[in-house]
Amino acid sequence: MKQVPKEYYELLEQIQTVDFALVELTLYLDTHPADYQAIQQFNQLAQRRKHLKKQFESAYGPLQQFGNSYSNYPWNWNDAPWPWQI
Amino acid sequence: MWIYEKKLQYPVRVSTCNPKLAKYLIEQYGGADGELAAALRYLNQRYTIPDKVIGLLTDIGTEELAHLEMIATMVYKLTKDATPEQLKEAGLDAHYVNHDRALFYHNAAGAPFTATYIQAKGDPIADLYEDIAAEEKARATYQWIINMSDDPDLNDGLRFLREREIIHAQRFREAVEMLKEERDQKKFF
């Protein structure tokens, strides 16, 4: 199994943190659609998420596929590790 | 992790209210070779398959969830305007009594979905052959449903799904060849 550096875990945790906030805000906004402040926070985090995704992917390869991430040559979507291997 | 996208993979159109067709289509929703069984089968096999084919199982498993949504949309559109009388005529009276027009994971004969539809041997070749067989069975089922259907709009969506089964089976066949190649390259001294 491929070894991943310490920074991999750190960057991944940052993404997981932002993503969790986005999941929570999504559910909250589903029932509180007029909370302006929450929407502001949501949009800020969405932007931060985009930035983190770019940073992570340029170092460790695509997070998503079906065209939601770019690929190196050769196709690197198949590369380990998968989430249950780290 | 999964993220939902608010769109169907391929447009689903239905010409007329037709609960009889919905009754057939439920086979692909909660049947043994249906889309739910397919998605659960592939996503579950990923953990014990060689790294080389984890991506393929992930992606096809994910696409199957999109197909499940298409089948659900078809069933919904075919039944949403049906009267209880029409449902009865279509043989959906027992379904109506239990579920009204709600969808349920069962097959065309009303047998509820069961995990026994899914195999997991942990042997890569055995698992991939099971997957190829499942795709071919699903392709055949789509053909039988198309043969029973006189709805040109519905058939367009069903033909798309039938073609996807062919592609999936083809990719799984290629995955088998990749694993065989890897196996044959191993040198023993």
TrEMBL record, chain A:
Residues 10-85 form the Protein CotJB domain. InterPro entries: CotJB_dom, Spore_coat_assembly_CotJB. Keywords: Capsid protein, Virion. This is Spore coat protein CotJB. It comes from Parageobacillus thermoglucosidasius (Geobacillus thermoglucosidasius).
TrEMBL record, chain B:
Ca(2+) binds at residue 59. Binds 2 manganese ions per subunit. Binds 1 Ca(2+) ion per subunit. Its cofactor is Mn(2+); Ca(2+). It comes from Geobacillus sp. (strain Y4.1MC1). This is Catalase. GO terms for molecular function: catalase activity; metal ion binding. Belongs to the manganese catalase family. InterPro entries: Ferritin-like, Ferritin-like_SF, Mn_catalase, Mn_catalase_dom. Mn(2+) binds at residues 35, 64, 67, 135, 168. The keyword rRNA-binding does not apply. Its EC number is 1.11.1.6. Keywords: Calcium, Manganese, Metal-binding, Oxidoreductase, Peroxidase.
